[in-house]
Amino acid sequence: MPFDEEDAQLLALMGLGAKSGKKSHYPELKRRLAELERMRTLLDHAGDAIMLVTLPEEFLEFGNVSAKTLMTMSGAPGGRRLRDCLRTAGGRPVSLRELFPEPRNPESRAVLSLLSMGGPRRFEASFRVALDSGRESGILILRDQEEQISVQELLASSLREVEAERIRTISLTTALVEMKDSYTGRNQRGTARLAAEIATGLGMPPSEVDDIVTVSLLHDVGMMGVPSEILNIPGPLRPIDRLLMQEHCVIGGDLLVKEGFPDRISAAVLHHHERMDGSGYPDGLAGDSIPLAARIVGLADAVEAMLNHRPYRPALSRERVLLELADGRGRLFDPEVTDICVSLLSRGFSFKSPGEV
Q: Whole-angstrom Cα distance, residue 196 to residue 19?
């Protein structure tokens, strides 16, 4: 029975037939086939779904076992378009052109939700373009991230709940302080408003501005431990009364530590009456050894107190406060913090909320 041309070439590769020549290529062919089979086995054992797609047609040339669990077809993937094999959780066909409109080398990434045998699941999609003998193909790898994303979402939800509880705690504490001493309560809210503006002017990120607001609303929480008789003295304090009043920083700092507030919050509350020249209290810190949050809140606290009525003196004029800030710049108050505060006051900053009379 005569052989056709293709059969003759195959026999030649195997070292058989008239065209075989002197050397058999069968061992080499067998070795390469074994390597391909080994590579396929390794890919099939990979936990990630791996697909080889022709471009730009997006025909699926290869899909490992994990990939086939995501496919809506059965049998070998060759010759089928990717859009016929993969569906999003919403039922839409998957298109690389839509998913990666401008694929970048070495790699493009995205997160998408796909239908799988176990239902909708979220995957990290990694896509790379490769050239083989001038032919363009795409390698698509899908890594199941459902459990990890779910854990992250649960953690984010828990953090939001903790933050909400923290805000409720701060609000309640501020209200309790105001019930004991209305001046202190108003001072905390006004200080928070000015301190937040100063922190924003310094270019601090939102998370740090939030910390400044928290410190401001709690900076006088230690006043709960100071006798009301001292808080309401309508004149200069006696030395013993002044010492008791100054203890509110330590009381407040200790209270926040016991309640589990971060060190950056409790330290700022503890040191908000420190001054740049070391003349403040409770520890006589100076310069940059005073936490920045304490420097901001300390100045905002002083400005709020000067601009508002107190039992022992009337409110100062804005012009007088600006003079006091100029005198205390660098000596009592941080120079940069002072400059921003002066700018805010000069532009008409008000402690009142919009609509408040």
A: 88
SS3 call for 286? coil
Cβ atoms within 10 A of the Cβ of 296, count? 33
351: left (phi over 0), alpha (psi -120 to 50) or beta: alpha
State how far the alpha carbon of 261 is from the alpha carbons of 188, 244, 301, in Å. 18, 24, 21
Chain-wide mean pLDDT for the chain? Answer: 80
Q: How many CB atoms lie within 10 A of CB 277?
A: 14
State the pLDDT at residue 58.
87
Long-range (24+ apart) CB contacts under 8 A made by 222-228 are 222/247, 222/248, 222/249, 222/250, 222/251, 222/252, 222/253, 222/255, 222/269, 223/177, 223/180, 223/181, 223/184, 223/248, 223/252, 224/176, 224/177, 224/180, 224/251, 225/251, 226/251, 228/180, 228/181
pLDDT band at 74 (very low <50, low <70, confident <90, very high): very low
Mean pLDDT of 38-61: 78
Per residue in 260-306, pLDDT (tens digit) is 888 999 999 999 999 999 999 999 999 999 999 999 999 999 999 89
**In what helix (H) or strand (E) does residue 13 lie, and over which residues does it extend?**
helix 5-13
- Report the alpha-carbon distance of residue 331 to residue 280 in Å, rounded: 11
Question: Between helices 146-180 and 206-218, what is the axis angle to 10°?
Answer: 30
Beta carbons within 10 angstroms of residue 343's beta carbon: 13
The label of the residue with tokens 């025909």 reads: 59
Sign, Cα dihedral of 285, 287, 289, 293: positive
Sign of the torsion formed by the C-alpha atoms of 334, 336, 339 and 341: negative
| Phi-psi category of residue 134: left, alpha or beta, with phi > 0 → left and psi -120 to 50 → alpha | left
pLDDT at 154 over 50: yes
In whole angstroms, give the CA distance from residue 93 to residue 327: 70
